[in-house]
Amino acid sequence: MPRGICMIVSAPSGGGKSTLIREMLQRFDNLRHSISYTTRTPRLDEGDKNDYHFIDEAAFLQMQAADEFLEWAEVHGRLYGTSRNDLDTLLAHGYDVIMDIDIQGAMQAKEQLADAVYVFVMPPSMEILEQRLRDRRSETLAALERRLSNALQEIPWYDRYDYVVINDDLETAIDRLRSILIAEHLSTKRRAVHEQAMLCMKETKR
Ligand code: ADP
Ligand code: 5GP
Predict the structure, then answer these.
(1) Mean pLDDT per segment of 10 residues, for the chain of length 206 residues?
(2) 122 assigned to some structural domain
(3) Burial, 111: exposed, middle or buried (Cβ in 10 Å; 0-12, 13-18, 19+)?
(4) Inter-residue contact 129 to 15 (CB < 8 Å)
(5) Closest listed ligand to the CA of 171
(6) Residue 21 CA, closest ligand 1 atom number
(7) Domain count, the chain
């Protein structure tokens, strides 16, 4: 079975990663979300094992010491990490996997997952980003300020990614992200494309 494609998505907080990933999961049957581990507390609408595995710092540090994380980072004062084993199991089963990780994590992943696709989701402007974060009402004022000031440090990293998706109109942004995954499956970088070509040539010889 061909291994799935891993799509790594980063954006400043409020950029629209969770929204876009949710929409992608509804549109691709073969796509799964890699569920990260975090020490942050769940938001009102979040449940364990759906959005994140919510664990305490001691459990996180234990996983870290056992080298269970493909990548991990401290983001906005909390720890977040991706289980190497969880990701590998999904890819080996042929699922495409979409991961929402911050820039530090994406740069660590790049060293180990050369064939992953790296996508930066860009807000249309800082004003709109701030408005979306405020409207989400998920953060205290201090946490919101921290996320906005982090955004200014994060946005300049966009050119380390393969693609940039501007999240202005939601449907258009979803189409952009969908197009990337579809195109990646057709790329000559992918083994499945070569296997298909071999099959076709074999049939021609008969
Ligand atoms: P992130 O996961 O990157 O922190 P979210 O997906 O939670 O961001 O999006 C932040 C807020 O902006 C959410 O309330 C979401 O509903 C809203 N949002 C996301 N994309 C758009 C869009 N294109 N247009 C309008 N609102 C959006
Ligand atoms: P939030 O707390 O808003 O869900 O996420 C905060 C930040 O943590 C986002 O930038 C998100 O991409 C990042 N993040 C979520 N999961 C992971 C992970 O497993 N690893 C890393 N490095 N960052 C993550």
Answers:
(1) 94 95 97 96 76 94 97 94 97 97 96 95 97 90 92 96 98 98 95 89 72
(2) yes
(3) exposed
(4) yes
(5) 1
(6) 6
(7) 1
Distance in Å, CA 168 to ligand 1 centroid: 10
Query: Cβ < 6 Å from ligand 2: which residues?
Result: 10, 13, 17, 36, 40, 71, 73, 75-76, 80-82, 100-102, 104-105
Structural domain contains residue 1: no
Q: What is the CATH number of the domain that holds 125?
A: 3.40.50.300
Confirm whether 20 is domain-assigned.
yes
pTM higher than 0.70 for the full model? yes
pLDDT reported for residue 49: 63
Ligand 1 atom nearest to 11, measured from its CA: 3
- 105 burial via Cβ count (<10 Å: 0-12, 13-18, 19+): buried
Residue 182: give the domain boundaries. 6-205
pLDDT at 206: 59
Distance CA 59, CA 39 (A): 9
Contact present, 117 and 184 (Cβ < 8 Å): yes
> Which atom of ligand 2 has the smallest separation from the CA of 10?
12
Token pair, residue 91, equals: 């890819």
Measuring CA to CA, which residue among 107, 56, 98, 100 is closest to residue 78?
56
